[in-house]
Amino acid sequence: MTATSQTSSDSPVSDSPVDPDAGGHTDRSLRPGGLRPARPLLTYLWLDLFRSLREPANLFFVVAFPLAMYLVFGRLNASAGDYGPHAHGNVSASVMLAMASFSACLGATSASATAAVEQSAGWGRQMAVTGGGLRGYLVVKTGTAVGTAALPVIVVLTAGALTDSQMEGWVWAASPLICLIGVLPFVLWGLAAGMWLPSSASIGIATSLVSLFAFIGNTFMPLNHTLLTISRFTPMYGSTALARWPLGEGWTYVPDRPAGIQDPLWMPLANLVAWTLIFGLLVIGARRRATRRQ
Asked: Alpha-carbon distance 194 to 150, whole Å?
């Protein structure tokens, strides 16, 4: 007993499991001036993206609903031929691109509205005191919004490639990126809705209005000339027209204009920029209101 006790008391401090010298690499990784490990942030991103995509509402409205719309209306137009006089693909591909753009905007809106609700509930402040900080939280939420928007685009374009959609190779390559560019105003729209509306209803209202924007934005069905003129001022027109641009170079089928209408590229771009600014101002206004309340 005496020998054992003496050995324990004489043992060097460096043998202790909490000795800094015994775990030098761990100590260096936690120094204030060192780089934080990326693995926890990536794990959080993966878990948050997985949580977002496994939500039944997201699986149905963001993935299954646009896919079903394409499979029904895209297949009905399989024999309609090329999409306009400057076509780089067929009519079925135009339906595919519209549904891909719609699903991406819907997914981005859902993810960003969820992030805004979490932020208003205090989750953002709680994450700000962790190792990743508020910047890491924002990176994760941005990645979740992009991932939630990208998955349905991949699903719809894959379904189109396996069925009746036909496009030139460069159009296939450019379409996913253009669809993701078109979600920018809807990321801000989701944030604005989550910050202005009651948290219990904000996500449902935000995504439902995206569907309404799609109906009046020439996404689901061809509009006559009067309605098309109105649709150019709605939020979904820019995203849909931009997604279809490589396919028909701005040409749009109009039921009461047999020759169709050719919109210049600046129209969807101006629409996208204008609604990005409008929704951005709504986010800034909601943020200032929350700051005044604090």
From this structure: 21
Q: What is the Cα–Cα distance from 115 to 216, expressed in whole angstroms? A: 27
CA-to-CA separations, 149 to 12, 56, 178, in angstroms, rounded: 57, 16, 12
Beta-strand runs (E) in the chain: 251-254, 257-262
Report the chain (294 residues): mean pLDDT per 10 consecutive residues.
43 42 44 52 84 85 92 81 83 94 94 83 68 70 88 95 92 95 94 87 92 95 93 96 93 88 94 96 86 67
Token digits of residue 76: 């009905």
CA atoms within 13 A on the CB side of 120: 23
Sequence-distant (6+) residues with CB within 8 A of 180 are: 104, 146, 149, 150, 153
Q: What's this model's pTM, rounded to 2 decimal places?
A: 0.81
**183 touches 149 (CB < 8 A):** yes
Q: How far is CA 81 from the centre of its chain?
A: 32
Give the H/E segment covering residue 103: helix 91-120
DSSP bridge pairs for 262: 251
Other beta carbons within 10 angstroms of residue 192's beta carbon come to 25
Q: Cβ(99)–Cβ(77) under 8 Å? A: no
| Predicted local confidence at residue 149, as pLDDT | 93
- Cβ–Cβ under 8 Å, residues 95 and 108: no
CB 118 within 8 A of CB 32: no
User: In the beta sheet, which residues pair with residue 257?
Assistant: 254
Indicate the pairing of strand 251-254 with strand 257-262: antiparallel
Round to whole Å and give the CA distance between 133 and 43. Answer: 15
First to last CA, the chain: 63
Check residue 117 and give its pLDDT. Answer: 83
